[in-house]
Design goal:
3-stranded antiparallel beta sheet, 250 residues, 7 helices, elongated, 42% helix, alpha+beta
């Protein structure tokens, strides 16, 4: 039998319910509860799993609203910003004396037919060190839940309307565009366990009630089993799938 590929929210829901025993067993959860648990799973997945985000460079065109606000509004899907670069030669980080283009023209020292790559590397590191020592980089601040990128420069003179800047950032991968995320084995197991815990919580209030035929509800057993699975999955996330500490700012 061919393996079922989960590539949508509906297929994920059906897959998880089948893992719990549906339709042979009645899974006592509502549609809204299932949707909420899928949302919870994705929120945890996006915050901790390294496969949930991508590093990219986004261009942003400065608007008059940006200058008036003294910050740039960042899309919700951006969860961390690493660096911000000007695109103009007159950008806020430019120091002409140590600019690489200036040095190349001044001494013609980067002709690789005559100069060792080792010498080139050492010179570039030295120039970068001097540049950072005397000028440093323009500081910026980004807080994920505020969606505001604050660049601590002179907004009146350093940035002009219609100028572009480049933002190096981490952005959430949209599962609707890249549906392979739904088929992530860790995520499928996690959604299943969250739905199972909801099922156990729903049945807990009927604990000990005997049904026709002598059957007895055991919501507490389902709840405890789900909690053990979730704890194992959290530990697995920390040890195998978690993003490296310090790789995201914001």
């Amino acid at each position: 039998m061919a393996q079922v590929t989960v590539d949508s929210r509906i297929k994920m829901k059906d897959y998880c319910l089948r893992r719990l025993g549906s339709p042979m067993i009645d899974i006592n959860v509502t549609e809204d509860q299932i949707e909420d648990r899928i949302d919870d799973a994705f929120q945890y997945y996006r915050d901790y799993h390294y496969d949930s985000t991508q590093k990219l460079y986004k261009k942003h065109q400065i608007t008059q609203a940006d200058k008036d606000n003294r910050y740039i509004t960042v899309p919700d899907e951006v969860i961390g910003i690493i660096n911000v670069f000007p695109t103009s030669q007159e950008g806020w980080d430019t120091v002409n004396m140590f600019d690489m283009r200036y040095q190349m023209r001044l001494n013609d020292m980067f002709d690789f037919t005559d100069v060792s790559i080792l010498h080139y590397t050492m010179v570039m590191q030295h120039i970068s060190l001097i540049d950072d020592y005397f000028s440093g980089r323009t500081p910026f601040d980004y807080q994920r839940h505020m969606n505001q990128l604050h660049i601590y420069c002179n907004w009146d003179t350093d940035l002009t309307v219609d100028e572009y800047i480049i933002i190096e950032c981490y952005q959430i991968i949209n599962p609707e565009s890249y549906t392979d995320i739904y088929n992530d084995i860790w995520l499928k197991r996690y959604v299943t366990s969250l739905i199972k815990r909801q099922w156990g919580q729903n049945l807990s209030k009927y604990e000990g009630i005997t049904l026709p035929g002598g059957l007895t509800y055991s919501g507490q057993a389902i709840l405890e089993s789900a909690n053990e699975e979730i704890s194992t999955l959290h530990e697995e996330m920390d040890t195998k799938h978690g993003a490296l500490l310090g790789m995201i700012i914001g």
